[in-house]
Amino acid sequence: MCRNIKPLFNFDPPATDDEVHDAALQFVRKVSGTTKPSKRNEVAFERAVSSIASCARELLDSLETSQPPRDREEVAAKARARTAVRFA
User: I need a labelling partner for 4 at 20 to 30 A (CA). Which of 29, 35, 38, 80 fits?
Assistant: First the structure.
């Protein structure tokens, strides 16, 4: 799966619609094998992104957990540390 698609559930503050759209866009790009569709396929591409974003938002809104929300800055700092070790 795409490395650019990040977990969006159980964060404080919750995932924004832009984050959900970006994840859907990455998914559609991966599945279609293209980053920019041809003019002929543009409508289908955008329809897929919209549909997947809607489903993802519905999923995120319906999930439940007993764990406390994760801090975005803390998760980002851990990711930066892993990247520094990986590319050092």
Answer: 38
pLDDT above 90 (res 2): no
Has residue 22 been placed in a domain?
yes
- Check residue 33 and report its DSSP letter: T
The whole-model pTM stands at: 0.83
Report which of 13, 12, 5 is spatially closest to residue 53, judged by C-alpha positions: 5
- Do 26 and 77 touch, CB atoms closer than 8 A? no
Q: Residue 21: what pLDDT?
A: 96
CA dist 79 and 69 (Å) reads: 17
Q: How many domains does the chain have?
A: 1
Q: Residue 48: which domain range?
A: 11-86
